[in-house]
Every structure is written in structure tokens, then in C-alpha cells.
Amino acid sequence: MSATHRIAPSILSADFARLGEEVRAIEAAGADLVHFDVMDNHYVPNLTIGPMVCEAVRRHVGIPIDVHLMVEPVDRLVPDFAAAGANLITFHPEASRHVDRTLQTIRDAGCRAGLVFNPATPLHHLDHVMDRLDIILLMSVNPGFGGQSFIASTLPKIAEVRRRIDAHVASGGQPIWLEVDGGIKVENIAAVARAGADTFVAGSAVFGAPDPDGGYHGVIQRLRAAMDT
């Protein structure tokens, strides 16, 4: 496995009654990031968690917190999540009136910044902001709920974003992570890696199916091993 491959378990699938224990367990099991899904029942049809929960999680883990904002508008919440301990903040371009300004707001708050693309969202939003991105997140399900099945048409989109990132870096640009979220599991993570992803969000695959012998460590190791198949 490449050292640049990262596993980011999504706490959307965790046991919220034991959230501190859950995030400590995934860090101990070798997770690289904590993926933190923020939904507002406006941009997406669900309501989840906010900065107070992010601040609580921060006290339990040392690994980066990867905040995915599925909210509209975006800018008002950025400083709150940065203050709560977020390390990366991503948002959907169609949820911001001024994508460039929102990216700069995230960076000014001391976080790494990125854009998120739904399965049917075109990639033209990348055309003029590649120099401001630290991460690009492609959704391989329609956002709003955990436990959905991977949308296979995301694979060529991953490959196209990988091509854009590689061209950007080759021309002297900064490295950009390529993250994929939705339906990632042992059976398909190799195809997603081959398409060009380097960061993998896994919710129910980790929290919903721990290894009977190895717990979260076992399932994270199976995900890593499957990337090489």
C-alpha cells in the first residue's frame, strides 16, 4: 500500500452514545483522519452535528478532523469549526455564493480547504481555483444519509479529477488530496484507488462491520490490504 493512502472513518455511522470511545478506537486502529459530516436539513435532507460535537471529538483524538460541510450558506460556520478543532474543511460549490472567497475564508481560519462534488455536479468549478485547493472530495453517493451503495459512474469522474491534479502538480502547483466518500468497502476500494483516489471515507464499512477478531483495527487493515488487489 502506498504511504499516501489515507482511511477516514465517518462518524456518521458511529455509536453517538459512545462517541468519544468510538473515535479513540478508530485512531488506535490506525485511521488517518476522522471524517465529520455536517448536515443542515436544508442543503441535504438530514440534520446531524455541529461545532460543539467537533470540539468534543477534538479532545479525544490527535489525528486530523476532516469536516465535510453539507450546509447552505457555508461561510458563517467556517470560523466556528476552525475554532472547534477542524483541520480540513470542505464544502459544495453550489452552496456558496462566492467559491473563491469561501476557500480563502477556510484558509484564513488556519484549515486546509477543499471542494465537494456530488455525483451529478460538473467539475467546471475546479477550473479557476486549483491553486487554492488542498483536497477535492468526490461523493460516490448522493449525500444526506449513510449506508448507501457506491455509484459506479463515479469511477471515471475520479480518473478525470486525478488527471487534473496530476497536470496541476506537473505545472508547478501544490499537491491536492483526492478523497472519495460513499459506499466504500473492502470489495470496491481497490477500483476506487486504481481510478486515482488517495483518501477514502468509510462509514458503515468500519463502524457497522468491525472485524469479529480484530475489531476496527481488523477492518481498517482489510481496507488497506484490499487496495493492493
Kindly report the spatial arrangement of strands forming the biggest sheet. 1-8-7-6-5-4-3-2
What structural class do you assign from the helix and strand content? alpha/beta
Mean pLDDT across all residues, rounded? 94
CATH superfamily: Aldolase class I
* Number of beta strands: 8
Beta-strand residue percentage: 15-25%
- Number of discrete helical segments: 8
The biggest beta sheet reads: 8 strands, parallel
Count of separate structural domains: 1
Task: Please write the CATH class name.
Answer: Alpha Beta
Question: Alpha-carbon distance between the termini?
Answer: 10 Å
- Rough outline: globular
The CATH architecture comes to Alpha-Beta Barrel
Order of helices and strands: EHEHEHEHEEHEHEHH
What's the CATH topology name? TIM Barrel
Low-confidence stretches: none
Radius of gyration: 16 Å
Helix content: 25-40%
Structure description:
The protein is an alpha/beta fold. It has a single domain, classed as Alpha-Beta Barrel (TIM Barrel), CATH 3.20.20.70. It contains 8 helices and 8 strands; from the N terminus they run βαβαβαβαββαβαβαα. It has an 8-stranded parallel sheet. α5 runs parallel beside α6. The chain is globular, with a radius of gyration of 16 Å.
Which features characterize this protein?
single chain, 229 residues, alpha/beta, TIM Barrel, eight-stranded parallel β-sheet, 8 strands, 32% helix, globular
